[in-house]
Amino acid sequence: MDLHRLTLRAIGPFAGEHVIDFAELGRSGLFLLEGPTGSGKSTLIDAVVFALYGSLASDGSSRDRLHSHHAAPGVEPYVELVFETAAGIHRVRRSPQHQRPKARGTGTTNQNATATLVRLSSPDADAGEVIGTSTQEVGTEIARIVGLTRPQFVQTVVLPQGEFAEFLRSTGEQRRLVLQSLFGTAVYDATAKQLAEMRTAAKARTDAADARVAEALTGLREA
């Protein structure tokens, strides 16, 4: 999976619109996300996870904290991510649930979360094939396209601060399921299971044949 570009506005400490070109940053093969506490490092990671799964990287984090308190009222918060997998190039855009000024009168009203998913011909394409226009549709398609659930993505791709130890402390079965999904080893497990079943069936046939031979020999001796 390749991340091409992340765009966010009114998210966390980022009041305005900011664009991160991962393709450019990754040209040397490695880049560092560095900054003092509160500068927005975790927000960028949360933005990637939110764009894909509609939730944040850490289980204990509330999506309410996504909307920037520094943004002007009426500015829609959103995250947009262009990414590429074996299923193609896609652009996902999500806006978290937030309060916006009422169209009439004073006060605010609740704006529900929105999501759209578009298949692109190239990372820089403006238009493409819309394949999801609701949070449910986008969630279903993302799971298929990425091939990982949110917990699996977080544990194998993101690993927020302090959660690497949790992955190491997880049971062998939990780690096996995560790694199996990540490296696509399910086909080997299925093959091993099929071979075991074939072995059991062959042994049953052999045992039955041995029993018939033994029965025949007994009959010959008694004749």
From TrEMBL:
<dbReference type="GO" id="GO:0016887">
    <property type="term" value="F:ATP hydrolysis activity"/>
</dbReference>
<feature type="compositionally biased region" description="Basic residues">
    <location>
        <begin position="92"/>
        <end position="103"/>
    </location>
</feature>
<feature type="region of interest" description="Disordered">
    <location>
        <begin position="92"/>
        <end position="112"/>
    </location>
</feature>
<comment type="subunit">
    <text>Heterodimer of SbcC and SbcD.</text>
</comment>
<protein>
    <recommendedName>
        <fullName>Nuclease SbcCD subunit C</fullName>
    </recommendedName>
</protein>
<dbReference type="Pfam" id="PF13476">
    <property type="entry name" value="AAA_23"/>
</dbReference>
<dbReference type="InterPro" id="IPR027417">
    <property type="entry name" value="P-loop_NTPase"/>
</dbReference>
<dbReference type="InterPro" id="IPR038729">
    <property type="entry name" value="Rad50/SbcC_AAA"/>
</dbReference>
<feature type="domain" description="Rad50/SbcC-type AAA">
    <location>
        <begin position="5"/>
        <end position="202"/>
    </location>
</feature>
<comment type="similarity">
    <text>Belongs to the SMC family. SbcC subfamily.</text>
</comment>
<dbReference type="GO" id="GO:0006302">
    <property type="term" value="P:double-strand break repair"/>
</dbReference>
